[in-house]
Write a structure and sequence with these properties.
disordered N terminus, 8 helices, disordered C terminus, four-stranded mixed sheet, alpha/beta, 207 residues
Length: 207
């Protein structure tokens, strides 16, 4: 990476883990309690779940728009997740956040994390793990947003994803959301929030 990546607070943090482990919930807690941490918003071709907002939880885009972003090189990484929908990280906002010196975090799937390791090897990779396999199953079933077939597909994906834990720099176990978020922030070395800059979210990608 370039010279700016040597500054500790501009280091890119990549958070990944198995499906239903709570990556999005932990990321949301980091955003709530430490708004000085810039968190990337992924683009996806899947439809929004109840309560999800475009540009807040994800950028919900059509297949054609996603194709265009990929062809233009606008995505830092992208992958087909659970054999169905595509997810990707818009490149421009990440580069802008790093250039500005903000602590930056990507909350992505395992395939995406592997691509980022190839393109940004200086990033710090954190694996979010469930306390137990049984707890992961309980969380997935309890979420109530998937059909039985979708749950089984996600559980099969999770079995593969859990085996990748050794590829990461450190593991955070998600026993409780706030504790996991604070452990993650501690790994970033983030200090007290600078509220004048805290709410700065880099400009959204042009879709």
């Amino acid at each position: 990476m370039n010279e700016e990546s040597t500054r500790p607070r501009s280091r890119l943090i990549v958070l990944a883990g198995p499906t239903a482990v709570g990556k999005g919930t932990v990321a949301a807690e980091v955003r709530r309690t430490h708004p000085e941490v810039w968190i990337s918003v992924s683009a996806t071709t899947r439809p929004p779940r109840p309560g999800e907002e475009n540009g807040v939880h994800y950028w919900f885009v059509s297949d054609a728009d996603f194709d265009a972003m990929a062809q233009r090189g606008d995505l830092l990484e992208w992958a087909v997740v659970h054999g169905k929908h595509r997810y990707g990280t818009p490149r421009g906002p990440v580069e802008l956040a790093l250039a500005s010196g903000h602590p930056a975090m990507l909350e992505i799937d395992l395939q995406g994390a592997r691509q980022v390791r190839e393109t940004m090897p200086g990033a710090f990779f954190v694996f979010l793990a469930p306390p137990t396999w049984e707890e992961l199953e309980r969380r997935l079933v309890g979420r109530g947003t998937e059909t039985a077939a979708e749950r089984e597909r996600r559980l099969e994906t999770a079995r593969v994803e859990l085996a990748a834990e050794t590829e990461f720099d450190v593991t955070v176990v998600n026993h409780e959301v706030h504790a996991a978020a604070e452990e993650l922030v501690a790994l970033m070395g983030v200090e007290a929030p600078d509220h004048e800059e805290a709410s700065t979210n880099c400009s959204p990608p042009t879709l």
